[in-house]
Amino acid sequence: MAMSSEKIIQFLKEAFPDAMIDIKDLVGDNDHFAVEITSQAFQGKTRIQQHQMVYEALQGHMGTHLHALSLKTKVPME
Length: 78
Fold this sequence. Notes:
Strand content: 25-35%
Structural class: alpha+beta
Number of strands: 3
Number of helices: 2
Strand order of the largest sheet: 1-2-3
Radius of gyration: 12 Å
């Protein structure tokens, strides 16, 4: 079972309300996505911690309803 980009954005916006999110379905199957997320919540966190925060926001769907996710996380420029 796949997950729509809208559902992914919903999970991410719940966890990171200030986020700017750019999402691309890489092969058109709702199963392989590239996501770029810019949020102040990532301030002071390592890249690994940032990615863990994103996986947590997906509430266990990574690896089940969502097969592949290429992540790029950033802190907004001031």
